[in-house]
Design a protein that fits this description.
Length: 180
């Protein structure tokens, strides 16, 4: 809350001190309010910048691992949080620099697409299918599905999953088992 207050006060001060300057100069010369020091753009926007993989010190390694663990466990998509977070937690400490870069590429994928590709509802694009981290997580998910879910309760490979019940019909015309 204090940082928001400081940012608003700074913005007000800039606007007030440069009010005549704004009116007399072209927009290209206006001072920007969206500087990283005010944390308006840099902290609250998503970018496609690559994560800097730095193994030079134990501290930078620890920070990188913590950031990637957080990103894998807090995606906002419960199933992915559980599956991806657990896999990353088990494997991140044994990864080399290339493995970390591959993990970052997987973490940069959109949640719904990644979930459909991992569960086999849709085929993954070729660049994703060549990623060793994606392949390992996909194998783990498919292995869990084979071992813990009966075939009657699963969708056919390549088909989206559907609900197996209907709250309005109360079971009439619904499948006998599962989500088909």
């Amino acid at each position: 809350m204090a940082s928001l207050r400081r940012a608003l006060i700074s913005a007000h001060r800039i606007l007030k001190s440069n009010q005549t300057h704004f009116l007399s100069s072209p927009p290209s010369q206006w001072p920007t309010l969206f500087r990283p020091q005010y944390c308006w753009v840099s902290r609250f926007s998503t970018t496609t910048q690559s994560v800097d993989v730095d193994f030079s010190s134990e501290e930078s390694k620890r920070r990188l691992f913590n950031m990637l663990l957080y990103r894998s466990k807090q995606r906002g998509f419960l199933e992915l949080d559980l599956v991806l977070g657990k896999w990353v937690e088990e494997h991140i400490y044994s990864m080399d620099e290339n493995g970390i870069k591959d993990l970052v590429h997987v973490l940069d994928l959109e949640n719904p697409d990644l979930w459909r590709w991992l569960t086999g509802q849709e085929p993954a694009p070729e660049p994703v299918n060549r990623n060793p981290v994606f392949i390992a997580v996909h194998e783990k998910v498919m292995s869990n599905l084979e071992n813990h879910a009966s075939p009657e309760t699963r969708a056919v490979a390549g088909k989206p999953w559907v609900r197996g019940w209907d709250d309005f019909k109360k079971g009439k015309d619904s499948p006998i088992t599962g989500n088909q």
